[in-house]
Design goal:
With about 375 residues, this protein is an alpha+beta fold. It has helices at about 5-20, 30-35, 45-55, 60-65, 95-110, 160-165, 230-240, 245-250, 295-315, 320, 325-345, 355-370, 375-385; strands spanning about 1-5, 25, 40-45, 65, 70-75, 75-80, 90-95, 115, 120-125, 135, 145, 150-155, 170-185, 195-200, 205-210, 215-220, 255-270, 275, 275-280, 285. The protein binds adenosine-5-diphosphoribose.
Length: about 375
Amino acid sequence: MIVGAGPAGLVLGNVLRAADVGCVILERQARVHVEQRGRAGFLAPAGVRVLDEHGLAGGLLAKGQSHGTCAFRGEHGQFELNYGELGQREVHTVYPQQFLVTDLIAEFLDRGGDIRFGTTVTGMHGLDGDSPSVDCLGPDGDAYRLSGAYVAGCDGQRGAALRALPDGAARSFRRYHGVTWLALLAQAPPSMEAVTYAVHDRGFAGHMARTATVTRFYLQVPRGEDPGEWSDARIWDELGTRMRTEEYGPLREGPILERTTVDLSSAVSVPMQYGRLFLAGDSAGLISPSAAKGANLAIMTARTLAAALTDALTRDDERGLVGYSDACLPRIWHAQEFSHWMIDLLHGPAGDGEDAVFLRRLQRARLLSLRDRRSHQDHFAENYVGI
Ligand code: APR
């Protein structure tokens, strides 16, 4: 039983079906909802390779765009890093997550998979025994219980899996990084080729291409900000100031399709398993979007779990399941470390206090080192696209 049809649950389901392992995916939302939910869009080569190896990369290889540059703007000027030429010389593939999710659902159904939309898992039982079960509430209000050999919690941080962990079964390490973004989707073509990070005394601003007609922007705002306070005009005005359009040219504007706030926070569950329940994707480790690693970690943990479940169910070999957390956690912590470093790089504290000014000087020194030193650039590139 797989709870959740995001990238983690769908990759897991597809890999299991390819190995002829029976499974059912239970998803709270309607199919149309998950197929239209715009979220991440940057896939690292390791994630793309996993998808490709399992016959899941048809859409993204045909329609995704290669992306290998990012730019930093600030009072230091602007510089661009062609990370596709640095480090391991690898690039991202830009493919909006809703397209990937749509492809993965179609493929899972093609592989004879059973996926139940509009079905909320409300509880879990017998996780420490041989036959765990989950309580489901179907789309017509029909309540029933399903049992199976294992449960995969791929239902994010607010799902049923984390709630089902008994006290003391796992420790959740959490941290709010002290930064909140207003995340925006604009009906506008990208204004620049590169992902652009703007560092400004008024706060961070970011620009990320999604498709030819839709672009993602971010604005750092105080925690608890009401997105409704941000009219289209105010957003474009603030983006213009922080992205220094007077110096670098105007942004291509259009209606704002979506505005939500995101608290940059992390959570890691240690271990990622309890009895016959295994966590993958966001439920195991939430990562701030500062380095675009969430979807990639979801794919990697799902792949590792799929291999371990297949060994257990087809060869009676449980070593992969026993070692599942240990296999995944180093990579998760490594990604957290880099993401934390990116947060520090992009956000200086506000104000004229001695501490704030000191930290902003460090931030500037870090940016200049990244601009000028090849070894620093290689390290950045390896972590930015790798892990
Ligand atoms: N019952 C059934 N489904 C549930 C329940 C529940 N109780 N709770 C949550 N879900 C579903 C959600 O509706 C959602 O579709 O679980 C799914 C979890 O999917 P995601 O949030 O996409 O999580 P995951 O697959 O781990 O992928 C996470 O992808 O969006 C990127 O970068 C982002 O880090 C993130 C990564």
